[in-house]
Structure formats: C-alpha cells, structure tokens
Specification:
By secondary structure, this protein is α+β, with helices and mostly antiparallel strands. It has one domain: HIT-like (HIT family, subunit A, 2-Layer Sandwich). The protein is built from 2 helices and 5 strands. A 5-stranded antiparallel sheet has the order 1-2-3-5-4, with helices on one face. The radius of gyration is 14 Å and the shape is globular. The chain starts with 5 loop residues before the first helix and ends in a 9-residue tail after the last strand. It binds guanosine-5'-monophosphate. The site of guanosine-5'-monophosphate has 14 residues, from strand 2. Guanosine-5'-monophosphate binds next to strand 2.
Length: 114
C-alpha cells in the first residue's frame, strides 16, 4: 500500500486547507505556494497517482471531476479566463503523486510555459 501523500491527508482532513470548492467528486483548495494571483489545486475524491493513470477512474466520475474543476474556477471568479495544468512525472515537474489539476488565473498568463 503506497503511503499517503499530502493530498490524501488534506482529503482526510488530517491537514487543513483553504477550500475554494467541494462536491462529491472534487476538493479544490488554494495552493500553498501560489504561482499566480489565483492558484487552486483540484483533486478528485478517488485516488490515482497522476494523469497517466486517469483511465483507472470510472469515466463518469472523470466527467464529474472535470466539471468540478470548472466549478472551482467559476467559484474563484475567473471570468476573464484561466489555465488548467496537470503536471505529470519528472519532466512535468509533478511533486505530489496524487492526480491534481492546477487552476491558474487572475492575470494574463505567459505562453509557452517554461
Ligand atoms: P505538482 O508540483 O505536484 O504539480 O503540484 C503540487 C502542488 O501542491 C504545488 O503547487 C505545491 O505548492 C502544492 N502543495 C504542496 N503541499 C501543499 C500543502 O500542504 N497545502 C497546499 N494547499 N498545497 C500544497
């Protein structure tokens, strides 16, 4: 059994977070080290390790997770647009092995990313 990640612990309420949005499929909370004026992390309430494992989630659940990400962006007031990022693996700079979307906004973002 893999050890709990920081996001497992947040979901179990063993570690506090600043919740932005929550429903039966998603918990979205403020990133502790924001990279934009608005930086939210949105995790599914079923665990997989990262984007490569997304097909291990039931398809209907994945759809509800995606809708939850959109709802979190709306809740944060990102009416002018935003970016959704899934970092995957070493080259993708993933540091927490629990699938999560970054929602970034609150300013015009640069492209391409670094
Ligand atoms: P990754 O690099 O894996 O794509 O993203 C992990 C994100 O989780 C980082 O942006 C990091 O700042 C954030 N993070 C790490 N630990 C915590 C924590 O304890 N609380 C919150 N709210 N965010 C965290």
């Amino acid at each position: 059994m893999a050890e709990d990640t920081i996001f497992d612990k947040i979901l179990k309420k063993e570690i506090p977070c600043d919740t932005v949005y929550e429903d039966e499929a998603v918990l979205a909370f403020k990133d502790i080290n924001p990279q934009a004026p608005v930086h939210i992390v949105a995790i599914p309430k079923k665990k997989v390790s990262g984007f490569d494992a997304i097909s291990d989630l039931p398809a209907d659940f994945t759809g509800r997770y995606m809708n939850g990400i959109r709802a979190a962006a709306r809740q944060a007031g990102l009416t002018n647009g935003y970016r959704v990022v899934f970092n995957m693996g070493k080259d993708g700079q993933q540091t927490v092995d629990y699938l999560h979307a970054h929602i970034l906004g609150g300013r015009e973002l640069g492209w391409p990313p670094g």
